[in-house]
Structure formats: C-alpha cells, structure tokens
Amino acid sequence: MTLIIRDQLVNPPTWFASFRDLTLYCRIFLHDDIVIESENPDPYYHWIKPRGGMDFINDFVRPGSEDGVRLDLEHNFPRSIITDRIAPENVHRLIRQIQGCRKAA
C-alpha cells in the first residue's frame, strides 16, 4: 500500500519528530511505500532532508498521480485522512485511521 502525505503536512505546525515517528511506523510495521505529494518538491526536500525526514520516504509525486491512503488537509480523494498537522497528540489516531483505510481497500 502507498501512504501519500500532502506536502504542507511536513511544515509547522507539524512536529517533525512526530512526522518521523509516523513515517517510521508506516514503513517498518505496515510495510507502506511513503511518498510526499507536491507540485513543487524542491523546498520541501531541502527542509526535510537535513533533518532525516527522507529516511522513510520513497519519493515525491505530483498531486493525483498515485493511488493509496492520503494524509491531507482537505478531502479531495477517496481514502483521505484529514488533519491539520502531525503531532504527538494525534499520531496514534492517524496510525489507526491509516490501518482502517488499508482494511477498507
């Protein structure tokens, strides 16, 4: 399964440590391919690469080009999980929702 994360969700108010926790869990335990969806990936790549954010990310993709479970700011596609940030208080809920969307697929 592919987990698609909207580019704005790698920036604050997302906690970068929580972003890493989520991507690590999904990659190691759920065996997901993880991509970041962006029209302009360069600034996001330069923000997350030096912080170790690319360790569990496979690639950047154009919006709408991949099928999978999406973490997004708004509901634009089926199997979208809506959130405004990835933070300690919601990372466990996001993991449960990702697992639920995987079962529904």
Backbone CA Rg = 12 Å
- What level of helicity do the residues show? 25-40%
Shape: globular
Order of SSEs: EHEHEEEH
Return the average pLDDT rounded to an integer: 94
* Main sheet: strands, sense, barrel: 5 strands, parallel
> What structural class do the secondary elements suggest?
alpha/beta
Euclidean distance between termini CA atoms:
9 Å
Runs in which pLDDT lies below 50 for 5 or more consecutive residues are none
How many helical stretches? 3
Identify the strand order in the major beta sheet.
3-2-1-4-5
The fraction of residues assigned to DSSP E strands is 15-25%
Describe the structure.
By secondary structure, the protein is of the alpha/beta class. It has one domain (2-104). Helix content is 33%, strand content 19%. It is built from 3 helices and 5 strands; from the N terminus they run E-H-E-H-E-E-E-H. The chain has helices spanning 16-28, 41-48, 91-104, and strands at residues 2-6, 33-37, 59-61, 69-72, 80-82. Strands 3-2-1-4-5 form a 5-stranded parallel sheet. The longest helix is centred in the last third of the chain and has 14 residues, at 91-104. The protein starts with a strand and ends with a helix. The model has no long low-confidence stretch (mean pLDDT 94).
Q: Topology, please?
A:
Blueprint lengths: L1 E5 L9 H13 L4 E5 L3 H8 L10 E3 L7 E4 L7 E3 L8 H14 L1
Parallel strand pairs: 1-2, 1-4, 2-3, 4-5
Helix pairs in contact: 1-3
